[in-house]
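Worked example 2:
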Amino acid sequence: MLKETVQDVGGACSGTDAPRIRRIDLHITKVPFSSIARRAMDDSPTGLGMAIAAEEPWDGGDFVFARVEDDDGGEGWGEVLLWLPETGVSPTQLTEVIEHHLGRYVLGARPADIRRIRARMDRNVTRNEVAKGLIDLACHDLAARQVGRPVHDLLGGRGADALPLCGLVPLGDTDTTVAICVGYVRGGYRSLRLKLGTSPERDRALIAEVRGAVGDDVRLRVDYNQAYSAPEAVRALRLIEPHGIDAAEQPLPVGDVLGMVQVQKHTSIPLFLHEGAFTVADVVTLIELGGCGVLGVNAERPGGLVPALALIDYASARGLGSIIHNQPLGLGTAHLTHLAAARYDQLGHDVELAGDVMFSHPLVTDAPRAVDGVLPVPTGPGFGVTIDRDALDDHQVAPTVSITAASFAARP
């Protein structure tokens, strides 16, 4: 258990005398897209850079940051990215469930007791995985800072000092897509993830051009963003099979579990969920039914690092690799970097973290930066990054929500 791991690490704050959480602050922020991302989205057929059939506007990244403070004034931070077509929850909804419900199960607890906190949250508030994930992440940061160690040390240690990255390629015309792919490869990337979904024939033509441009040694995976029905997905996947595709993300609409099972039976390309993966049970059910050939996971969607680690370990035991992917800011990038480092030998796929390209500011002062397609693993205390409080204030779009024991004193 994480509690035992923290106690084994030692330090002045280990054991039952560790300071407890006395305050939670929630910050709703909006970060504009970078000029590169905005241009790529505007040039795409859907205006979103992907095939998802969403009408919900997407004019920047909506993020919620949680700060948990202990009795000694120590702090830990978590970050989650929200967009209703994918996460199914808005920043206001997320902050409200923590302010009025989940927060009571966090205050007064040791941050190292994340499993205990999670069990209490689950007993009293069903689902709400992203909100629980935000709490999990902030608690991990504080627990590690209390003992002066990086988070990955609390997860079993790091299996790599640096992580090879997968480049994210938006939906676009053939010439633009090929140029982006070639640019990534020249920059040291050896894996690419391409957005597809305009039609099976166009998908095939695009993949053929990309494969011809980057060669056979570069690994390719694709993301359909729910573009197809089951029969269309089977056709689309079979058309690109000859080009050596590592994995295909979310070819069918969210909830079509039986369709995913049927499609996986008719293609050699491993499928995985993104928009349709919220809980450990979602993923385990699909894998056991034979509708998923690789695990796709991030830190917030299954409910934080504890369930994310459980899923990676489960997938590994079933002989499946794992794809860690998201487009976070600087703190979120650190979350996933520590997760990937802690299970590096079980992944089998390069990590996809494109927030530094997608958004205009990381909101940390020391964001992890890739060099030649490789991202170093932070080694400082906690997640190893520092929140840029001035930038956070500049991008905050609602008053800070502060939660203490007094917040619940007058409530049943």
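Residues 1-12 have pLDDT under 50 and may be disordered. The domain at 2-151+389-409 is CATH 3.30.390.10 (Enolase-like; domain 1).
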